[in-house]
Write a structure and sequence with these properties.
The protein is of the alpha/beta class. Helix content is 48%, strand content 15%.
């Protein structure tokens, strides 16, 4: 049965746009006080103005441990102890072949994986001391299947999924819980560059609503939309030749999009 989030304090990274923006509004509408974290302060302040007194702006770069720790401390001082931490900040860029875009790959892992670790490190000690709380990672269905042209992004999300699997089990009996969110395609600034068909694509607001339901119901892993989730998992059994036929031109399209 779903539980109320009213009165809880939620920290949300990547709150300046997309899923994070809509999730902050959805949680605030459900009665949460929300700490808004992202690198860009101006959109955070615009979001805080839209939400009202229940929001607190704490700019930070999730790639930097000290920056996230300071943001969490700022939220704690303004709103109270953090009950819910959502590691939502993420980046996605195509993986190129010639030359391999090493800097982009490095950045994806620093944001998508280490950003999550830094976020949880900033809140877990207090949650464990209180024996209550929930950490949430916004991953992706892409973490279940390596795709041509998306190797690094898929790998970063696979790392998130594995980390969360182990963390969830490690937290058993502590009173702190972990939830992994694996959406499919969502209309966000990150997917705006995609020129290919995105099956089952949904709005950021719809994805945020799914996340709130998963948190309230205590879901361990939420994969959605379900049709795309099934297709993604079944694709692991498809021959490489068929996958290449479907997505083999992706690298060339990616180069054009990145001006190479």
């Amino acid at each position: 049965m779903a539980t109320s989030l009213a009165g809880q304090v939620a920290l949300i990274t990547g709150a300046s746009s997309g899923i994070g923006w809509e999730l902050a509004k959805a949680l605030a509408a459900d009665g949460c006080r929300v700490g808004l974290v992202a690198r860009r302060e101006e959109p955070l302040r615009a979001l805080a103005a839209e939400i009202g007194a229940a929001a607190h702006v704490a700019p930070a770069d999730v790639r930097d441990h000290a920056s996230v720790t300071a943001a969490a401390a700022s939220i704690r001082a303004a709103l109270g102890p953090i009950d819910l931490a959502v590691a939502n900040a993420g980046v996605g860029k195509p993986t190129l072949l010639d030359p391999v875009n090493v800097a982009d790959v490095d950045d994806m892992f620093r944001v998508n994986v280490m950003g999550m670790v830094h976020t949880f490190a900033a809140v877990l000690p207090e949650m464990l001391a209180r024996k209550s709380g929930r950490v949430v990672a916004v991953s992706s269905l892409a973490g279940y299947r390596g795709l041509p042209g998306e190797s690094a992004y898929c790998a970063s999300k696979a790392a998130v999924n594995s980390y969360m699997d182990g963390l969830r089990i490690h937290l058993r009996g502590t009173g702190v819980f972990a939830t992994t969110i694996c959406p499919g395609f969502v209309h966000t600034p990150m997917t705006a560059m995609n020129t290919f068909h995105m099956p089952g694509v949904m709005s950021a607001a719809a994805a945020a609503a799914r996340i709130v339901r998963a948190v309230k119901s205590g879901t361990k892993v939420a994969n959605f939309p379900w049709r795309v989730a099934i297709m993604t998992k079944l694709s692991r059994w498809l021959p490489d030749g068929l996958m290449n036929r479907v997505m083999g031109d992706y690298n060339e399209d990616a180069k054009k999009q990145m001006g190479q």
